Amino acid sequence: MIKYCKKCVMPDTKPNLSFDGEGVCNACRNYENRKEIDWDQREKELQEVLRRYRSKDGSYWDCIIPVSGGKDSTYQVLKMLEHDMTPLCVTSTTCHLTEIGRKNIENLKNLGVDHISFSPNPVLRKKLNKIGLTQVGDISWPEHIGIFTIPIRVAVNYKVPLIIWGENSQNEYGGPAASVDNHILDRSWLEEFGGLLGLRVSDLEGFDGIIKKDLIPYYYPTDEDLKNVGVTGLFLGYFLPWDGYGNALISQANGFQTWGKTIEGSAVDYENLDNYQVGIHDYFKFLKFGFGRASDLVSMHVRRGRMTRKEALKIVKKHDGRFPTTYLDKPISEILEPLDITVEEFTKICDQFTNKKIFHRDENGNLLKDRFGNLTKVNYDNE
Ligand SMILES: [Zn+2]
């Protein structure tokens, strides 16, 4: 049986999430610990860091900001502009960019910044989507690697040492690298928490005709390259009281567009707008661990006192882990078509990655599904 945090709705099946003796998860405890933080002091620390990296004569960019065009990166850009920084923004394009995602990137550029968009070879990327999905149950595997490696490559190649990331996911979602003092993203953070799922980039050489050269954008720069430029990645969430919803509101006031209705499998309309494959990515999280994006979102709201745990549980039951028939209104067949996967094949892959212990099955042990293909968890909250 899945156990749930007593304060939020996160399950103990989530990798890296730990529970204390009172049954409270470390993401909730991290949030409570934030109350002790002197944010004025942190703001001073931020100003001091930025002062050190700001170009003295204004002849060069002051920092790199990895940007998707989403609510968090729009907020990061706004904050850096407020702090008189001249950023070079870098987008590692998503695997299947949406129309609204494209508009939000344009909006971000129009905040008044220089911008580089990098798209890894799409033919290879489709192969990697398929390998990620069938081998480790993560269609977004290449995208997650690219998000972390490509801005660092740009930092090395353009010789801009400071990289401004958003929140340390280990803080907001819980994990061993969550610590109020943990504010640096480096190679070891990436290798442990960057979502590689035990599949290393080097493992792909020789797979399906892939050669080393195909994988250039996915390899992290060498330690020597990083050291030569002095690359330092900072989490802005260490310096500012990070809140995704607050970031969305501020971004919206600066031209960022939301979906305008609840996104499939989610509980809100303001995030994960830039890639049609996100629905599939999140669905696999549900199949493996019994929680979806709605659980993450409402847990963040519960911690911030914006809804009760009881209300959150209702939302989770309604939205979490629905079979991704569509995402941002695009039918799944059209999302899978470029990868040469049929919906029938996809369903089989889903079943392979489903943790059978946490879903209802018939007397023969087969997964029970409704006519839309939805599974039901054996317990949603100690029921
Ligand atoms: Zn919790």
What is this structure's SSE topology?
Blueprint: H1 26-34, H2 39-53, E1 63-66, H3 71-82, E2 87-92, H4 99-109, E3 114-118, H5 122-136, H6 141-158, E4 162-165, H7 169-173, H8 187-193, H9 223-229, E5 232-235, H10 236-239, H11 244-252, H12 278-289, H13 293-303, H14 309-319, E6 326-327, E7 330-331, H15 332-336, H16 343-353
Parallel strand pairs: 1-2, 2-3, 4-5
Antiparallel strand pairs: 6-7
Helix pairs in contact: 3-11, 13-14
The structure holds zinc ion (ZN).
Number of strand elements:
7
Order of helices and strands: HHEHEHEHHEHHHEHHHHHEEHH
Shape: globular
Broad structural category: mainly alpha
Our estimate of the beta-strand percent is 5-15%
InterPro entries: N-acetyl_sugar_amidoTrfase (IPR020022)
Organism: Acetobacterium malicum
Protein name: N-acetyl sugar amidotransferase
Summarize the structure.
The chain is mainly α.
Report on the structure:
- It is a single chain.
- The protein is mainly alpha-helical.
- It has 2 domains: 55-244, Rossmann fold, CATH 3.40.50; 260-382, no CATH class.
- Helices cover 42% and strands 7% of the residues.
- The chain has 16 helices and 7 strands.
- It has helices at 26-34, 39-53, 71-82, 99-109, 122-136, 141-158, 169-173, 187-193, 223-229, 236-239, 244-252, 278-289, 293-303, 309-319, 332-336, 343-353, and strands at residues 63-66, 87-92, 114-118, 162-165, 232-235, 326-327, 330-331.
- α3 packs across α11 (244-252) and α13 packs antiparallel against α14 (309-319).
- The model has no long low-confidence stretch (mean pLDDT 92).
- Zinc ion is lined by residues 5, 7-8, 10, 24-25, 27-28.
- Zinc ion binds at residues 5, 7-8, 10, 24-25, 27-28.
- This is N-acetyl sugar amidotransferase.
